[in-house]
Amino acid sequence: MRLLTLAVASFAGSAVASPSSSTQHHPQLHHRSSLNQTAPSCRAVPGGAGWPSADLWAALNTTVEGRLLKPAPPGAVCHPSQPTYSKDACTATQANWTDEFFHSSNPVSVEWNNWTNDTCLPDASQPCSGEGYPVYVVNATTPQHVQASVKFAQANNVRLIVKNSGHDYVGRSAAPYALSIWVHYMKNTTVHPTSFSPTGCSNVTIAGAALTAGAGIQMYDAYALTHTINHTVIGGNGRTVALGGFITGGGHSILAPQNGLATDSVLEMEIVSPTGDVLTLNECHNTDLFWAMRGGGGSTFGVLTSVTMALIPSPEVVGMTFWIGTGADNTQAFDMLAYVVSQFPDLADAGISGYPIVFNTVKNFIDGSDTFIKGIIGKLILPGSSNATQLIERIKPIFQHVNATWPDMFGEYNTTYYPDFQAWYAENFDPSPTGHENLMSSRLLDRPALTSDLSALKLALAKFSASGQATVYIVSGPAVHKAKPRGGSNAVLPVWRRTYVHATASIAYYTPNNATYLADAKELTGFFSSAMRDLAPDTGAYMNEASKYETDWQTTFWGNNYPRLLSIKRQVDPDDVLWCTPCVGSERWAEEADGSLCRV
């Protein structure tokens, strides 16, 4: 069979983060628990009576050492009616619009156009305004910059958001009429080569290497830095994913089945609270917030200014690229797919993880012909091994069963040895296509969902991949199930503790400002969610990579942890200074048709 080198699309994680210095260790759980009903019913908007005066904004700029920005939308350079119009700049922006690093390095841009409501694309034929973007941005490089921003928003009834890289599948990094805290340049790091002692925890020393990282640290930074001491973080596969939102949402990883979720490795956090206090969170101090911030979601309980994570020795890796396909008209294609996916729990239990993708009626990538095929393609790894035979012996029986049961299938696998995880990552990172409209749906699948009824799994996979492809990532397993986070537990959706597969389906479209396309995309992601909910009604979804429009999102994203999370939110942020959706405690506010944020 021919040797095939294939790129696997759409890997991992989301982002919002942040570093810190001065700290307070007093629990911040004494505030009133109900919204002040004498407060304005809506957040202030530019031109409105409550919007801060120019003098107040100037005072904030002085407080943050001149780091207050009022940026134009990045696409405005392509619109002759806009002050920043430039033909040359437009050409450069258009060339870079699909580059994740372009959006990451811009103070207001995000990776997918729909989260700024297509309000100013680099296309002169489309409308351009700043209505989908924050009005002001603080380019925060210290916790004190974050403090000043939070206190200003609280005192002046201004909507507050947090952006790091803009790699956010549910659109929390952008909002109209807002002040944004941009933590991208908070990149301080400290490597603890042998052990870490949590702040203020007497006689507690945690053995093993650790990394303290500021909010601006993204995956490609974190992997490169930890590689210098032959270790690695438990991280995502996208290069621009930042630690903050990744960890606060849970943080799945190709290394998770063997080492736990990213948030399970957190030893300490520093945050700026919604009341503007700099707090240290660990197993000894602010323990409720420490629990909530590890899985309860970003931009909710505080602005993360730094995080300390346990590291693992960088494992050698046997990697595998594989595919199995058949003609698109083969009525047994999804029988084969259901069988293959049903084997994933056993693979995970054997130490194998990876990023498989089901493809449903796509152009034939094998011979480049005009025919169409269905099947599965992916990348698997066996960490901690140099022996390819160990991986092949687990995969070969699957291929043999497929060949014996469905003779019209064809496929290939090949293996590569990598001396450490960084070597694998350098060849296999997620390129994260950007610059288009993108909606996602997801579901976590446990062993019963994957093995108890293959007919139901077949139907669910067929529906879930109806847009052309769906991921069935093996990113959970024994170490996630048995994880022992510091302090005894954390706030991740409890279903993770029995999950094996994180399945996602996305709708990407390239026709902006089209209400019909958007409505269809929302309907289709709802169809995807329903299909997987029927298969696994008692599981849930990974909140960082899911549908923003998920029904019963409180249970879907947090399960029986939600009541405790909501109680903590009401205590530490009674006035909802931090608000995003779908996020813990967001029920009391909603965005109006004009983009303003008002109480409901």
Assembly type of the chains comes to: single chain
* Biggest beta sheet summary: 7 strands, antiparallel
Unreliable spans are 1-34
Any idea what the shape is?
A: globular
The percentage helix is 25-40%
Named CATH architecture of the domain at 326-554: 3-Layer(aba) Sandwich
Q: Note the gap between the termini.
A: 61 Å
Under the CATH scheme, which class of the domain at 326-554? Alpha Beta
Number of E-type strands = 22
Strand content is 15-25%
Read across the widest sheet, the strand sequence of neighbours is 17-14-16-15-19-20-18
Total DSSP helices = 18
Structural category: alpha+beta
CA-based gyration radius: 24 Å
| CATH fold-level label of the domain at 326-554 | Vanillyl-alcohol Oxidase, Chain A, domain 3
What is the averaged pLDDT score? Answer: 93
Organism: Sporothrix stenoceras
Protein name: FAD-binding PCMH-type domain-containing protein
Family: Belongs to the oxygen-dependent FAD-linked oxidoreductase family.
InterPro entries: BBE (IPR012951), FAD-bd_PCMH (IPR016166), FAD-bd_PCMH-like_sf (IPR036318), FAD-bd_PCMH_sub2 (IPR016169), FAD-linked_Oxidoreductases_BP (IPR050432), Oxid_FAD_bind_N (IPR006094)
